Amino acid sequence: MPDLPRETEQQKLHRQDKRAQDRENMPASKRVEDEAQEVVQEARQDVAAARLPWYRRLKRGYIFLGVYAALLVLFALLATFVHFHPVLGVDVTITRAFQEDQTPWLSWLMNAVSYIGYQDWLSVGLVLLAAVIFWLLDLRLEAVTIAVVYAVSGLLNLLVKIIVARPRPNASVVEVFRHASGLSFPSGHVMSYVAFWGLLFTFGVILFDGRRWWRIALLVISGFFVVMVGPSRIYLGAHWASDVLGAYLIESALLGIALLIYLQLDQRGVLAASKEHTWFSAKKMARRKPHR
C-alpha cells in the first residue's frame, strides 16, 4: 500500500511527459486548441468544486428575494411621487452637494464609471462575454439568465420612462457635465449596471463558496460598479438622486423576479450539464486530488 501513491505519481508524470512530446509534434493551431481546452476544463473543475449544494443556493436566493420584494413597493411609491413632482428640492440639494468637490481625480473616476453605459457596443459585448464564459463553465442556465435579464431590463427602463415622463436635470439649476438625451426617471445607467453587475454579484454569493481569487474578484468588481454608478450619474448632472434611487429599486425587484424563476428552473435541472460530462469531470477531479 505505501508504494501505491509513488506508482500513481510516476504514471502521472509519464502521462505528462508523453502529452508534452505529443504537443511538440502537433501543428501550432492544434496545440493552441488543445491548450485552450485544458484551460476551460481546469476552470470547469475549479468552479464545480466551489459550487454550493442546491439547498444552500436556494436558502441564499430566497433571502435576496425577500429584500427585492420590499424594494418593489418602495419603487411604486417613488415613481408615483416624481410623476407629479418632476423637480424636487431635495434632489437639487443632493446634486449640488455631490458637485461641490470637482477635483480632477474625482471627475475622472465619475466619468470612467459611467463610460461603459455610454458605449452600447461595450455594454452588450460584456454581457455576451460573460454569458459565453458561464456557458463554457457548464453554468448554462446562468448564462441564459444573464442575457435575458439584461434585455428585459432595457425594455423595462424604456417603458417606465415613457409612463413617468420626467425631464432630465436642467443646466440652469445644477451643473450638467455630461449631457444625455431622453427622459430621466429611472436612470438607464443604473438599471443596466444592476442588471449585469448586480446579477454577477448575486451569482457570486449564491453559487460559490470559499476565498478563491476569481470569486473575490467577481464580488469586488461587480460590487464596485453597482455601488458607484449611482453617485456618478448624480455627480455628472445626468440624473436626479431620485432617478438613481428609483433605478436601484426597480432593478432590484426585477432581479428578484429573475432569481425566483432561476431557482425554480435550477431545481428542475433546466440546461444542466449532461450526466456523462459531470461524471467525467468528477472522475478527473478525483484523480487530481493529492494522496494523503
> What average pLDDT do the residues reach?
80
Total separate domains: 2
Q: By helix and strand content, what is the structural category?
A: mainly alpha
Radius of gyration: 24 Å
The biggest beta sheet reads: none
Helix content: over 70%
**H and E string:** HHHHHHHHHHH
Oligomer, anyone? Answer: single chain
Quick one: how many beta strands?
A: 0
Could you name the ranges where pLDDT drops below 50 across 5 or more consecutive residues? 1-6, 275-292
Classify the beta-strand content into a percent band.
under 5%
Estimate the global geometry from the Cα principal axes. elongated
Give the helix tally.
Answer: 11
- End-to-end separation in angstroms reads 12 Å
